Amino acid sequence: MDMQRSFLDRLFESGLLIDTGVEGLYGRSGAFEDVIAAFERLIDRYGKADGAEAIRFPPGMNRAFFEASGYMKSFPQLAGTVHSFCGCELDHMSLLKCMEEGGDWTGEQKATNIVLTPAACYPLYPTIAKRGRLGDQGGLYDLQSYCFRHEPSNDPARQQLFRMREYVRMGTAADVTDFRQTWMDRGVKMMAEVGLDVEIDVANDPFFGRAGKMLANNQRDQNLKFELLIPITSTANPTACMSFNYHQDAFGTKWGLALADGAVAHTACVGFGLERIALALFHHHGLDVNEWPAKVREALWG
Question: What domain of life (predicted)?
Answer without folding.
Answer: Bacteria
